[in-house]
Design a protein that fits this description.
37% helix; eight-stranded mixed beta sheet; Rossmann fold; 11 strands; three-stranded antiparallel beta sheet; alpha/beta; globular
């Protein structure tokens, strides 16, 4: 299990999880409206000697929530600030969804600090339809829940195939207020700004600039990454491997953690 910590850098607070070890250092970056807790299932299947970290990105979880500044480039700078603050020179990064796009930008901006890049079911394409669908989704969500049971029922209806353990992970994305109600730990405005900043333009020009080895984990029939975009990514990133993920939705870090961990370990440990 990853242990919770808080760190401040540049006057900004970040909540992060860590399991120390003497092996490879791997940083997990979560997707939109998620938290670092979503990587506990994968961590359980990775070697005990690996040094694992995951942090709540700006606008999410227990980290700072500025009113603006939600471009992938802003997130990329946070990644640098975070790894500098914890005293790590370079590491491997697995970014899921939004976290993958942020990691992609980081790898081109700070190439000396990344050993390998693992992209989880995300591409660099522009997608205006996704912006509208995401905004509609956030506007349709309840803003609060009266009880934990009410929140749990809501999550079970949204994710009917999820195990009880995964529902409890999603429950960590809620916090109890003084009046007893539960509210989301992410900033809705931050999420909407993030999807607008990332999906209103294309990021293809960064792919040829990736200098480290890369792995693309692509969910079959993905709702987020089309086969055509994935094929183009393979052509444009100089040193990349491709691995499809079957029998899973977009959140394969929760739905297929053993499979995901196996592919991550194979990639990192194979010269």
């Amino acid at each position: 299990m990853l242990q919770e910590n808080i760190i401040e850098t540049e006057g900004r607070k970040f909540r992060y999880l860590q399991r120390k070890g003497d092996g490879p250092t791997l940083l997990f970056l979560h997707g939109l409206s998620d938290t670092s807790d979503q990587f506990n299932p994968i961590a359980a299947h990775l070697p005990e000697e690996w040094h694992l970290l995951a942090f709540d990105q700006r606008g999410h979880g227990g980290s700072w929530k500025p009113e603006k500044g939600y471009s992938p480039l802003d997130y990329s700078q946070d990644i640098k600030n975070f790894i500098d603050a914890v005293g790590i020179n370079s590491l491997h990064i697995f970014g899921h969804s939004m976290g993958g796009r942020n990691a992609l930008l980081f790898s081109t901006q700070f190439p000396r600090q990344i050993q390998s890049l693992i992209l989880g079911d995300i591409g660099p394409d522009k997608n205006l339809e996704d912006i509208k669908a995401t905004v509609d989704f956030f506007n349709s969500l309840p803003t609060s829940f009266k009880t934990e049971e009410e929140a749990r029922i809501h999550l079970q209806k949204r994710k009917p195939g999820y195990s009880d353990a995964n529902i409890e992970i999603l429950m960590k994305n809620l916090e109890k207020q003084d009046n007893g109600t539960l509210v989301w730990r992410y900033s809705k405005d931050a999420c909407i700004q993030s999807v607008n900043e990332s999906r209103s333009r294309e990021w293809w020009e960064y792919l040829p600039e990736v200098k480290c080895p890369a792995l693309l984990l692509h969910v079959e029939d993905s709702s987020e990454l089309s086969t055509d975009v994935a094929k183009r990514m393979i052509e444009e990133i100089p040193d990349i491997q491709y691995q499809p993920i079957s029998n899973s939705g977009h959140n394969f870090q929760l739905e297929q953690p053993e499979n995901a961990a196996r592919e991550i370990q194979r990639f990192i440990e194979t010269p």
